[in-house]
Amino acid sequence: MAEALNVGSPVAGRVVAMRDVPDPVFAESIVGPGLAVEPDAETGGRVVAPCAGVVVKLHPHAFVLLAPSGGAEPAGGRGVLVHLGIDTVQLKGEGFTLLVEEGETVVAGQELVVWSPLTVADGGRSPLVPVVALDLGTDGLDELVRPGTVVRAGDPLFRLA
């Protein structure tokens, strides 16, 4: 049995319920359950790994980490998606600086991306950052903070059973 995985906030900001994300794919938890964070204007541009794992997908606006399940094989791990803003794929990478590469193993709290939530908002897009547990039913997610809570990058958001 895999041990519980604590997933932290990738950015500093205010926690938002997933149902309040202005994108139906996230709001209806089609991708998976989780929470979102409204990034702080001053410090929300520093994006850290919400947990330890391997960067299995990396785009300027989003990444997926595969956290180990406790065994030696990462294939049995759990995926966590972090999406920086809504509709930010349209920016084609502009305004995002990647500090890691796909396939790299990272530690929780390691800085992965730098971006400007203010620039995203000024461009008419939502800077909300959904943090999603992939391939998991809602029964396996335990929220550790309530919507409205202000968090720093790395503070716990939820635990995966």
From TrEMBL:
Key word Signal present: no
Question: Per the record, what is one GO cellular component?
Answer: cytoplasm
Q: Which SUPFAM superfamilies match?
A: Duplicated hybrid motif
InterPro entries recorded: Dup_hybrid_motif, PTS_EIIA_1_perm, PTS_EIIA_component
UniProt entry keywords in alphabetical sequence: Kinase, Phosphotransferase system, Sugar transport, Transferase, Transport
GO: which molecular function terms? kinase activity
- Name the record gives this protein: Glucose-specific phosphotransferase system IIA component
Query: From which source organism is this entry?
Result: Promicromonospora sukumoe
Its lineage opens with: Bacteria, Bacillati, Actinomycetota, Actinomycetes, Micrococcales
